[in-house]
Amino acid sequence: MARMGGIKEVKEIGNSEEMDSLARFAIEKYNKKENALLEFEKVVNAKEQVVAGNLYYITLEATDGGKKKVYETKVWVKPWIHFKEVQEFKLVRDA
User: Fold this and answer.
1) Which Pfam families does the UniProt entry name for this protein (predicted)?
2) Are strands 67-78 and 7-9 parallel, antiparallel or unpaired?
3) Fold for domain 6-94?
4) How far is CA 76 from CA 63, 64, 66, 80, in A?
């Protein structure tokens, strides 16, 4: 486990159902807010910070109108109270 406030890499993101689930959650919230139709492709990178729960920094690929693009999102999770919130979601570049 990361020490409080420290940011660490999440290992084995290719096999992480948790990271895929958080990325899909962020896309779902973005699609609802922006009336968009992004489709999840894969998690490219993920970091975790312990802050009254866990703050995940996720870089992901998603398809937008048939074109793959790279996005960054921050998802705050407090599992003991079943809380998840997207703090940020932004386009980084075309994939």
Assistant:
1) Cystatin (PF00031)
2) unpaired
3) Nuclear Transport Factor 2; Chain: A, (3.10.450)
4) 24, 24, 29, 13
d(CA 14, CA 41): 11
What number of helices (H) and strands (E) belong to the chain? 1, 5
Distances (CA, A) of 55 to 49, 68, 69, 93, 95: 5, 25, 23, 23, 25
Tell whether pTM > 0.90: no
User: What does DSSP assign to residue 10?
Assistant: P
What pLDDT digit, counting tens, does each position of 78-88 carry? 999 999 999 99
Using DSSP's 3-state secondary structure scheme, residue 16 falls into: coil
